[in-house]
Amino acid sequence: MPLIALTGGIAAGKSTVASRLSELGAVVVDADQVVRDVQSVGSPVLDRIAEEFGDGILTVDGALDRAALGSLVFGDADRLAVLNAIVHPAVREESARRFGQAFAADPDAVVVYDVPLLVEARVDDPWELVVVAHAPAELREQRLVELRGMSPREAASRIGSQVPDDARLAIADVVIDTAGTLAQTRDQVDVLWEALPLRIAARRSR
């Protein structure tokens, strides 16, 4: 029942790693999807967010307007802390439910939690392995500009708003270097997958 955390900075290729792990047989739980689900229309979490930040963060059909909410909390540590205090406990509970569901369906499943904010919110959870997708900040900035249409200033701001790369690398058991080609990244994931039983056994024997 290995439970693995997968993290990485924005545009670091984490989704590529998650996709390949899924192809190889892992059950991938996407933290971003969990967040969207716990904030769905009519959810207690969305009601609390609207109560705290006002109905201006809702669309006309009652869904969360992520851009409107983001404009209120981005760059404001206090407001972001309030939002996190509402969202994180619900995400923790729902993700744990999904882990349990996966292991109930297959006790030998390899469950991977694809989580951008591991360092910020979930670093102390009982992961059996922490995998970090990593590419230099300059390359990630270039990807944000070329692939996502951001301005260089916006790309630098998004990267700068996240924890430093050193903080992620410091907690890594495995680093997947995503600075090369897609094939090179996938090859590293394949090597990790083959080595998982030994890595997990070594971790459990400590």
From TrEMBL:
Chief location bin: cytoplasm
Annotated SUPFAM superfamilies = P-loop containing nucleoside triphosphate hydrolases (SSF52540)
Catalyzed reactions: 3'-dephospho-CoA + ATP = ADP + CoA + H(+)
- Example of a GO MF term: dephospho-CoA kinase activity
What are the record keywords, sorted? ATP-binding, Coenzyme A biosynthesis, Cytoplasm, Kinase, Nucleotide-binding, Transferase
Quote the Pfam families the UniProt record gives: CoaE
The record's section on PROSITE patterns has: DPCK (PS51219)
Compartments annotated for it: namely: Cytoplasm
The record's EC number reads 2.7.1.24
Instruction: Give the Gene3D superfamilies listed for this entry.
Output: P-loop containing nucleotide triphosphate hydrolases
Function comment: Catalyzes the phosphorylation of the 3'-hydroxyl group of dephosphocoenzyme A to form coenzyme A.
Q: Which family does it belong to?
A: Belongs to the CoaE family.
Q: Which NCBIfam families match?
A: dephospho-CoA kinase, PRK03333.1
Protein name as it appears in the record = Dephospho-CoA kinase
In the UniProt record, what gene is named as encoding this protein? coaE
